[in-house]
């Protein structure tokens, strides 16, 4: 049984520690404790594999093995770009690259499953794609030195191929006259110049797909790695967007009856969605305009997990018959959500589909915030009608998520972590909708001292009783609840292998909101007493208290009657807990930086509380 929708839970589902429902936010309730069944509990199905185990029973034992011929081809390709590589560059050995490919499928692939594992073979991939996913795999194997080497090699090859593509599509213009600029009499028999070629005829769709796949994994990985590589990520993202737009010009094929053709078409569709998600994640992390907008994607949603993992035509046909899926386009699903209609189970069954839809809603909120004039409204406020529409859309999306068979609040779900990752995006969507955080959430800087300035309590961006702020705070509390219920120490030790960076980003944003909100309450209570708190505010404070009392930070809160200082201690404890989830060994620098930033913030809050400013 899946967790019920948030707006359908009753008080009877809470335990003795559960606070009452927020009276000031009708229709939005705390997640059912029934969700705890899915948090951190072992499942009866296969979880994420161990480093030496098979990825999936449908996959051969070594589909990513690099043959000697393939390795020779990689060496030849790298030699062609030796001038663009550092002098100390050395291509890792064949067996190491094979191992890195396996590491990629264990670490990165579950979060963006656009490669079809049942038919995957490293020997059928381009050298560009092999090097790109091997680079990512090396990082997930914590062999960063080789990861950087493979990244630089892959980037050099991609740059050269894109430059050649540009030359092929433009240099011919110097050798021929475009037909649109000729009078009819200029062309013999009214025909066009045979030497003139349109750009669409100069590249291979298959090669472009490999290029898109290589770019999207590199863009996402470098955006989360060392700070200097962020500029690389943004530069590559613009090239990725151009290739995706060209790909969308290719008319999608009709209904495919053969499994092989379906695999190719579904892989193309998933690749486009993955590229869209990657560009959207850059917006989430750095508060920049997305390179690919929601309006540009007009494709059917990705298929179900069962269809995608089917290892044979027979299994595939069986999965399709069992699912009886009614395909709806991405745009049609968004239209339904914005009208407040929950998607039918048949179309919301896929975790990948729900993931791209919530990304679409978050991007739409970003554009609404960007379009709201700071010179006309305080704090770039959205109108009541705008917020109402988006609330209805988010509620409809969540209803569909709750009814989907692939949805679990568990990063080790047998269906993969996409449904779990969607919850982090949902938190961000609610927070950005109801509270204007803007550039404060940008992680462009990798200096924790700089990032900690966003938490400066002297520059509080919120009006305490501003409309819908409590709802944003509620979702920040939800973000804290997940690691608390899983266990802070457990999350710190497993986050790298199981959790997407999006959860760390969501926690950073939630900590920022919660810190400023609790400081606002502190200022209010210091002047007017605890009775000045509204019922909804009291309930939120109780929720935070109950969560922290479940952790080792319980004794740091002091007596409950010690208001308003207890409010500041709540903020300190919450920020410390979030910081602790990032203390483990990390693949990506950005998670480490978030943890270091939150640790500095907690220290600053403690110092402030000590002098009772």
UniProtKB/TrEMBL annotation:
Keywords from the named record: Metal-binding, Nucleus, Repeat, Zinc, Zinc-finger
CDD domains: fungal_TF_MHR
Cellular component per GO, a single term: nucleus
Entry's Gene Ontology BP terms: DNA-templated transcription
Keyword Metal-binding: yes
KW Cytoplasm (keyword) present: no
Cell compartment(s), UniProt: Nucleus
Principal location: nucleus
Region (Disordered): 1-21
Residues annotated as domain Xylanolytic transcriptional activator regulatory: 101-397
GO molecular function: DNA-binding transcription factor activity, RNA polymerase II-specific; RNA polymerase II cis-regulatory region sequence-specific DNA binding; zinc ion binding
Biased composition (Polar residues): 8-21
Pfam family, one: Fungal_trans
Protein name, UniProt field: Xylanolytic transcriptional activator regulatory domain-containing protein
Organism: Penicillium salamii
């Amino acid at each position: 049984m899946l967790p019920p929708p948030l707006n359908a839970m009753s008080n009877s589902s809470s335990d003795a520690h559960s606070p009452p429902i927020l009276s000031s936010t009708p229709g939005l309730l705390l997640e059912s404790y029934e969700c705890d069944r899915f948090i951190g509990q072992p499942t009866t199905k296969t979880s994420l594999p161990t480093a030496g185990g098979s990825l999936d029973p449908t996959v051969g034992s070594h589909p990513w093995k690099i043959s000697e011929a393939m390795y020779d081809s990689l060496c030849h390709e790298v030699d062609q770009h030796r001038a663009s590589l550092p002098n100390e560059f050395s291509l890792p050995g064949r067996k190491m690259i094979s191992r890195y490919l396996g590491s990629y499928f264990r670490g990165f692939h579950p979060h963006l499953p656009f490669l079809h594992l049942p038919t995957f073979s490293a020997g059928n991939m381009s050298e560009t794609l092999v090097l790109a996913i091997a680079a990512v795999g090396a990082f997930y194997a914590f062999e960063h030195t080789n990861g950087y080497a493979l990244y630089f090699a892959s980037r050099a090859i991609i740059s050269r191929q894109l430059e050649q593509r540009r030359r092929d599509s433009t240099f011919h213009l110097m050798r021929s006259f475009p037909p649109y600029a000729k009078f009819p009499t200029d062309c013999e028999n009214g025909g066009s110049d045979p030497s003139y070629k349109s750009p669409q005829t100069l590249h291979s769709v298959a090669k472009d797909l490999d290029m898109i796949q290589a770019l999207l994994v590199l863009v996402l990985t470098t955006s989360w790695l060392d700070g200097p590589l962020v500029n690389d990520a943004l530069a590559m993202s613009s090239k990725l967007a151009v290739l995706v737009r060209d790909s969308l010009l290719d008319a999608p094929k009709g209904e495919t009856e053969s499994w092989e053709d379906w695999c190719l078409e579904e892989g193309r569709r998933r690749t486009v969605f993955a590229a869209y998600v990657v560009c959207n994640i850059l917006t989430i992390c750095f508060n920049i305009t997305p390179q690919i907008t929601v309006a540009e994607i007009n494709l059917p949603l990705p298929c179900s997990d069962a269809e995608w993992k089917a290892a044979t035509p027979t299994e595939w046909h069986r999965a399709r018959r069992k699912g009886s899926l009614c395909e709806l386009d991405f745009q049609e699903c968004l239209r339904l959500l914005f009208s407040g209609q929950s998607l039918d189970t048949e179309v919301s069954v896929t975790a990948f589909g729900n993931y791209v839809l919530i990304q679409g809603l978050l991007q739409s909120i970003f554009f609404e915030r960007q379009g709201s004039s700071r010179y006309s409204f305080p704090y770039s406020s959205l109108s009541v009608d705008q917020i109402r529409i988006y609330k209805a859309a988010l509620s409809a999306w969540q209803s569909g998520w709750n009814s989907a068979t692939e949805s679990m609040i568990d990063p080790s779900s047998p269906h993969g972590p996409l449904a779990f990752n969607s919850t982090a995006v949902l938190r961000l969507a609610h927070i950005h909708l109801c509270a204007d955080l803007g550039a404060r959430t940008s992680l462009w800087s990798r200096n924790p001292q700089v990032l900690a300035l966003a938490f400066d309590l002297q520059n509080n961006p919120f009006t305490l009783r501003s409309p819908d702020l409590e709802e944003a705070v509620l979702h920040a509390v939800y973000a804290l609840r997940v690691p608390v219920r899983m266990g802070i120490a457990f999350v710190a030790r497993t986050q790298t292998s199981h959790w997407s960076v999006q959860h760390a980003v969501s926690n950073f944003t939630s900590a920022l909101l919660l810190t400023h909100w609790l400081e606002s309450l502190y200022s209010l209570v210091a002047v007017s007493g605890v009775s000045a708190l509204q019922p909804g505010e009291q309930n939120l404070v109780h929720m935070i208290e109950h969560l922290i009392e479940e952790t080792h930070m319980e004794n740091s809160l002091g007596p409950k009657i010690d208001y308003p200082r207890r409010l500041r201690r709540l903020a300190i404890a919450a920020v410390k807990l979030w910081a602790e989830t990032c203390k483990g060994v990390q693949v990506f620098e950005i998670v480490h930086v978030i943890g270091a930033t939150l640790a500095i913030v907690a220290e600053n809050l403690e110092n402030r509380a000590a002098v009772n400013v």
